[in-house]
Amino acid sequence: MQWPWKRAETDLEREMRHHLESLAEGFERQGLDPAEAMRRARKEFGGVGRFKEQCRDESRWQPLSQLGRDVTFGIRMMRRAPVVTAAAILSLALGIGATTAILSLVDAVLWRTLALPQPEQLTEILWQSKGRPEGVYHGSSGSAFQEGPLFVADFFSRAAFDAMRNQAAGRADIAAHLGRDDVSASYAGVTSAAQLRPVSGNFFQMLEVTPLAGRLLGPPDDAAAAPLAIVVSHRFWESALRGERDAVGRPLRVNGRSYTITGVLPAGFAGIVTGESAGLYTTIEQSPAVLDPTSWFHTAPANAVVWYLQLLARRAPGVSNEALQAALDPMFRSTWTAQPKDPETAPAIRLQDASGGLGSLRRQFGNPLSMLFALVGLVLLVACANIAILLLSRADARRKEVALRVSLGCSGARLIRQFFTESALLAACGGVLSLGVAYATANFAVTLMSGDLRLDFAIDVRMIAATLAVTAFTALVFGLYPAWRASRVDAAPALKEGSGSVGGTRNTWVSPAKMLVLAQVALGVLLVAAAAAFTAHLRKIVTAETGFERTRLLMFDLRPGQSGYTGPRLRQFYFDLEQRLRDVPGVVAVGLARVRPMKGGGYSDMLNLPGRSKRINTAVNFVTADYLRALGVRIVAGRGLSAQDVLTGAAVAVVSEDVAREIGGSPLGLSFTMEGKPYEIVGVAARARYSRLTEQPNVIYVPNSLSRDTFTALLRTSVPPMQALGGVRRALSEMDKYLPIVDAVTMEEQIANTLRRERLFAWLCGSFGVLALLLCMIGLYGVMSSVAARRRQEIGIRMALGATRNAVVRQVVGEGMAMAAFGLLIGAPAAYYAATKYVDYKKLGMAPLDPAIIGWAIAALGLSALLAVLGPALRAASTDPMKALRQG
Amino acid sequence: MEGKKTDLLQGTLDLLILKTLTPGALHGYGIAQRILLTSRETLDVQQGSLYPALHRLERKGLIDSEWKESGNGRLAKFYSLTRAGRKQLAGELDQWQRYARSINWVLDSQ
Question: What is the pLDDT of residue A503?
Answer without folding.
Answer: 39
